[in-house]
Inverse folding.
């Protein structure tokens, strides 16, 4: 009997939140096989699918750094996959690879498409290739290296600090000797930041005393602000900006579900003028040429225990993806959000710590 394959296709552009069973269609077809391979192609099965806030932006028909996902098209997504068959010299049967195979169980990756064989140092875990030592870690690494440039004894504030990128950005800032303040959405996550990741201070933005807490946590003002959130929290950080501070604009998750609608703008941009603040946005693809160096450095820091990759792993297979993605916008995840499409034995000597498992 032919193997079946599940794939999510975009059914409609959401006007707000992604609606399970409506935004995407889950389609079952016969899985591609070795017989379907052409020269240069690789047949892969998905093990772990990355769920990222940027995916919500890809659903909007608007100008961006990548074209929008078309109606009827397979949903775009990065994944760790296992090679089932190969006609490409870059990968052989059994290799684990990082690729943009999308929201599907089995896929053919063509020559010229992203296909990176996992090459992580001992002491890391397989999913680090999609998290702390992958796109997530590299985003934090390059944003700080090229724009933020943290220095010893500076005050660095990170919003979305218990998320995938924020949690790594704060840890890297600590490596540079900065004093790091994390902003997150629960007291439990605050404890994770200070007790597990080494943040100096963690603030719950839902606390009724958050405004005062932010002032107390930044007595010398903010030298470097890493923004994952935008909105009111960005405004409040601007109020605390030091002269010649740097604001790294990585994300704006507070409005991702309302892009295109009348959303409030930042009302205190004049402070950027008076404090001579440098604000700069970026995307990870700006630094493709430096990926090998960044991966090597992130892997080394993980092995040395200087960076820990937090994960929330959703079990139950690919069919969980369109419901699991909502956690990114409700605060349901801590660290990197992954769907375990097919269980994979990590192997001897590979650490599986710092993961929150969410069952079916």
């Amino acid at each position: 009997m032919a193997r079946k394959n599940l794939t999510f296709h975009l059914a409609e552009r959401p006007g707000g939140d992604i609606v399970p069973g409506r935004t995407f269609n889950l389609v079952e077809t016969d899985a591609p096989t070795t017989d379907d391979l052409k020269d240069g192609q690789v047949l892969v099965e998905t093990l772990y699918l990355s769920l990222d806030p940027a995916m919500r932006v890809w659903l909007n028909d608007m100008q961006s750094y990548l074209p929008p996902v078309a109606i009827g098209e397979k949903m775009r997504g990065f994944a760790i996959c296992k090679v089932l068959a190969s006609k490409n010299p870059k990968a052989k049967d059994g290799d684990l690879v990082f690729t943009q195979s999308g929201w599907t169980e089995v896929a053919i990756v063509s020559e010229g498409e992203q296909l990176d064989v996992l090459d992580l140092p001992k002491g890391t875990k397989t999913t680090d290739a999609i998290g702390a030592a992958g796109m997530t870690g590299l985003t934090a690494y390059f944003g700080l290296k090229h724009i933020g440039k943290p220095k010893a004894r500076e005050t660095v504030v990170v919003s979305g600090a218990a998320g995938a990128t924020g949690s790594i950005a704060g840890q890297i800032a600590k490596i540079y000797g900065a004093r790091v303040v994390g902003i997150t959405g629960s007291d439990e996550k605050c404890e994770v930041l200070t007790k597990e990741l080494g943040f100096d201070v963690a603030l719950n933005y839902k606390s009724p005393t958050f405004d005062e807490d932010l002032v107390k946590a930044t007595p010398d003002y903010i030298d470097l602000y890493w923004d994952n959130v935008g909105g009111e929290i960005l405004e409040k950080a601007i109020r605390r900006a030091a002269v010649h501070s740097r604001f790294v604009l990585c994300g704006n998750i507070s409005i991702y579900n309302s892009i295109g609608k009348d959303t409030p703008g930042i009302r205190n941009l004049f402070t950027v003028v008076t404090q001579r603040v440098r604000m700069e946005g970026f995307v990870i693809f700006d630094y493709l040429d430096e990926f090998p160096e960044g991966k090597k450095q992130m892997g080394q820091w993980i092995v040395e225990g200087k960076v820990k990759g937090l994960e929330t792993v959703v079990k139950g297979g690919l069919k969980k993806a369109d419901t699991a993605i909502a956690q990114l916008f409700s605060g349901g995840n801590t660290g990197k959000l992954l769907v375990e499409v097919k269980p994979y034995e990590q192997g001897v000597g590979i650490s599986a710590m710092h993961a929150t498992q969410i069952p079916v």
Observations:
- The chain has ten helices and 16 strands.
